Amino acid sequence: MAEAGYYEKRPRPEHRAFLVDGLGRRPTVSLVEVVDDFHLVVSRNGRSTIWIYLTNKYILSVADVTEILDGSPETTCVVSTMNYNHVSREAKQYCRERNVGLFKSIELLGAVYYDGEEFLDYVRPSER
């Protein structure tokens, strides 16, 4: 039988591993801790720690982000693990207003170098 929606929200292990490996290769990152299927803690040299919630939701909406933040209030960054997934403009703004980053995995690999406003507002060079 197929996965029957198991990975509808849950990040696939190989996508989590890609992100953990990519973060671990960044010189600003001192430690990446995998807490469970959904949570990572990223310690950075001279910057704040990032408390990440991973999701594989195809289109991430305000309702999805609200559910995530209600269930994991320590979250400082929500990451969609698939680069073909989408994030609504409203969800991005909702997170921004709460000082929570909202990125696709590939975006986080660039944003990890920044803190504060620069982190929250990070846009990949190819999209500037």
Could you name the key traits of this structure?
128 residues, Dna-directed Rna Polymerases I, Ii, And Iii 27 Kd Polypeptide, Chain: A, domain 1, 7 strands, globular
Task: Please give a structural write-up.
This protein has 128 residues and is an alpha/beta fold. The model has no long low-confidence stretch (mean pLDDT 92). The protein has five helices and seven strands, in the order αββββαββαβαα. The chain has a five-stranded mixed beta sheet. Strands 4-6 form a two-stranded parallel sheet. It has a single domain, classed as 3-Layer(aba) Sandwich (Dna-directed Rna Polymerases I, Ii, And Iii 27 Kd Polypeptide, Chain: A, domain 1). α2 packs parallel to α3. β1 (29-34) and β2 (39-44) form a beta hairpin.
